[in-house]
UniProtKB/TrEMBL annotation:
<dbReference type="InterPro" id="IPR012340">
    <property type="entry name" value="NA-bd_OB-fold"/>
</dbReference>
<feature type="domain" description="ChsH2 rubredoxin-like zinc ribbon">
    <location>
        <begin position="5"/>
        <end position="29"/>
    </location>
</feature>
<dbReference type="InterPro" id="IPR022002">
    <property type="entry name" value="ChsH2_Znr"/>
</dbReference>
<dbReference type="Pfam" id="PF12172">
    <property type="entry name" value="zf-ChsH2"/>
</dbReference>
<protein>
    <submittedName>
        <fullName>Zinc ribbon domain-containing protein</fullName>
    </submittedName>
</protein>
Length: 102
């Protein structure tokens, strides 16, 4: 399992959500890269039971994810996925859709 991020082809900045221009250097050439896991920094449980979390990838990129399949505490490593129905224990779901037009 993994989540897809965007990497600037010029400066290497790792980005999510996807951008039209790199906020670090202004270039517009990107490649996609997959990240397997991240460290949970904060989590918030909503009234309906949904748990949203801020997770930090090894590149330093922070993502907002939904925790599925269990509980995770700050400092723990969570597996990232773009699959909303992923199996395999506690995962951090990051919505991603290539069909979205920018
Ligand atoms: Zn850049």
């Amino acid at each position: 399992m993994s989540a897809t991020l965007q990497r600037c082809d010029s400066c290497g900045a790792s980005l999510f959500p996807f951008r039209l221009f790199c906020p670090a250097c202004g270039h517009s050439d990107f490649v996609e890269h997959d990240v397997d896991d991240a460290v949970l920094e904060e989590a918030t449980a909503l009234a309906d039971g949904t748990v949203l979390a801020t997770v930090r990838c090894a590149t330093g990129t922070r993502l907002i994810a939904r925790i599925l399949g269990g509980e995770a505490s700050p400092g723990s490593r969570v597996t990232l996925t773009n699959e909303p129905n992923a199996d395999g224990g506690t995962v951090a779901y990051v919505p991603f859709n290539r069909e979205v037009k920018y």
